[in-house]
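Notebook p. 47: complex prediction with manganese (II) ion.
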Amino acid sequence: MTEPRNRSSLSQIQLDQKKSSRREFLGRSSGIVLAATLTGRGHGQGTQTSQAMKPAERGKNASDFGPENDLLKQANPNTFLPPTTDHGEVPSFWNSFSTSHRRIQEGGWSRQVTVADFPLSKDIAGVNMRLTAGGIRELHWHDAAEWALMLNGTARITAIDNDGRSFVADVGKNDLWYFPTGTPHSIQGLAPEGAEFLLVFDDGSFSEGNTTQISDWSRHTPPEVLTKNWGVSPEAVKSVYEQPADGHYIFQGEVPPPLVEDLRSSGAKGRSAVDFSFLMSKMAPSVKARFGEVRIIDSKNFPVSTTISAAQVVLKPGGLRELHWHQNANEWQYYIQGQGRMTVFFNGAKARTADFNAGDVGYVPKTFGHYVENVGDADLIFLEMFKSNRYMDLSLSEWVSNTPPELVMAHLGISRETLEAIPKTKAVIVPA
Ligand code: MN
Ligand code: MN
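Predicted complex, structure tokens below:
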């Protein structure tokens, strides 16, 4: 849909280019030219290209005899042939669940990206989990807080709050939950297809293999203590000591009864007043633009989520999550759908561009400038996650348009006309 507009813009540029000197030309249309240059659009159409501007980094200099991992190369075009604006040594801010070991058991599977595999991500770890219908993630807790997004299917979650009151709820695609540290909880897939979800922990060193599990803890308590604790006979707890030595973790159970029945049968102390779930599936966008939308979820609208804030971003093809930064926290990203690319500016003239596909994880250190561009043919959907109770950002456009104009023009050499064309408010999402 956007292509015809781009093409006509580009042919207009070609005409302009013949008529104007390059300097005048860049002054008037630098935004469009730069975009065409960086995305590689317009190659062979006589437009200004990075190849022409920086011949040393292209052509025969970039030739490659191999050996080459072609699958990785195809998925990472901006790494193989980086934009000539990339510069300096920058650590990898790319990772992927698709290269993580999958722990598969009866009832489902899990895989994780932690600081062990992704050194940059010290304060957030992610887990991707699938549970069959009836499949159970064992009753457990941990010393990191857990934020979750349902990716597919339906699940039943349970917890007790700090007063010991019961919480039970069903969640579906695009719904969230949050369990604070030490809050015991479980997750179970519902009929017909079970569930798949993403878990985000506010600690990069968190591991799903290191949680307090109910069967594990009970089995590793002396029987005379467990029987005394519960006031039951040794015979009554015999089965506890026949459970797996490492706990169940994930196991196949029966599909639970309708929610009303679980609500009726649980909660000797009554129902919790805390809502650990959030129906993002029913939430109106926080920002709605022509080329996409954003939903922001933090402790303002999801009060229990005091250590994690999130933005779910949908970008239409060609759309750009504008150049921006976050003042208060590192950003951990999860790509749900589509193809994107991101350049992160690492200060000191260092910048690197990477490609992101569904299942990939990205990371942007606190305050570092970045954009995300949809370079595919379908909607790009991704999460921006922060270890913070509050979502916060500033954009390059709002910076330059809310600073004395002469000062900005002196820095960038742009004309007043160009400066006036820059959006005065935070656009968040910029059209193609
Ligand atoms: Mn958990
Ligand atoms: Mn961001």
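Notes: The two ends are 10 Å apart (CA to CA). The first helix runs from residue 3 to 19.
Next step: compare against the earlier run before touching the bench.
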